[in-house]
Amino acid sequence: MMITNFWIFLLNSSPKVKRVMWKWWYQKLAHYGVNLNWTFMNYGYAHLNGEQVPELEEGDEELRFFIQLYHFTVYHLALKNKRVLEIGSGRGGGGAFVARYHQPQEYIGVDFSQKAVQLANKLHDHIPNLKFVCGDAENLPFDDNSFDAVINVESSHCYGNMDAFLQEVTRVLKSGGRFSWTDFRTKRKLAYLNNSFGQSSLTLVRGETITENVIKALDEIHDKKMAVIDDYVPRILKSIFRQFAGVKYSKVYNAFVNGDTIYLGKVFEAP
Fold first, then answer.
1. Is the pLDDT of residue 27 over 70?
2. Number of neighbouring beta carbons within 10 Å of residue 18
3. Phi then psi for 55, rounded to 5 degrees?
4. Residue 131: its pLDDT value, please?
5. Domain residues for 117?
6. Residue 128 counted as domain residue
7. How many domains does the chain have?
């Protein structure tokens, strides 16, 4: 518990320290579960009140709740034959889903963890319109006006400078291109987040609060996450992994349940 509390303290310190710690953490994560079907690192999305669920191939069913967060993020975007960038692509599971089901001409995932990029390229090298590269969300290695759509799923809370990130998103998007964003924030950080979006030149097209959908997904996948952590994570790191995974009764999970943390989805249009 002491290690976990110290970790949380570091992640809530200065933007520079937070950025360094998250990069170290994702480098470490790339070592775990390489031989498992562990290609996602999001909290998931469960449909409520009769919402239509996406049809998935049989081999994707065990990853349904993780996939559904990506489905929520992109289902309203016309991506077929388009050039798409995902910022914060992790192990590449989301990119693999979008590349296969939505058929963009090219899907590029960028991540600041070199080891995660290497792993993602290895896991998904059979998908021809998909590739992963190493890069910085606040200083993207791409030309101006080069993408039709940019997506960012549960990643921006790791960044040191949200304003710089949004400037880069705007820079690489073509005029009229769409930026679809999903992530969470504590209530005390919502004002800063909204100010960053408001100060950007992006125009809000739609916005939703999906906290209840995320909580339901966390409930559904709790047992599977616990089994993976118990079987594959060293004892000294188990408590940190449980927090990171948002398992039931963790601080992350409780913050969603009691309303201290809000999960949002937004879509913007570039000028």
1. no
2. 17
3. -80, 130
4. 98
5. 14-29+40-48+59-212+260-269
6. yes
7. 1
Report pLDDT digits (tens) over 182-212. Answer: 999 999 999 999 999 999 999 999 999 999 9
How does strand 261-269 pair with strand 173-186?
Answer: antiparallel
Q: What share of the chain is helix, strand, coil (3-state, %, to 5)?
A: 45, 20, 30
Q: How far apart, in Å, are the Cα atoms of 35 and each of 28, 63, 67, 124?
A: 15, 15, 19, 13
Query: What is the identity of the amino acid at 218?
Result: L
Predicted pLDDT at 32: 57
How many residues does the structure list for the chain?
A: 271
pTM, whole model, 2 decimals?
Answer: 0.90
Nearest to 163 by CA among 132, 134, 136, 200: 200
CB atoms within 10 A of CB 150: 24
pLDDT beyond 70 at 17: no
Average pLDDT of the residues of the chain: 90
DSSP letter assigned to residue 150: E
Strand, helix or coil at 92? coil
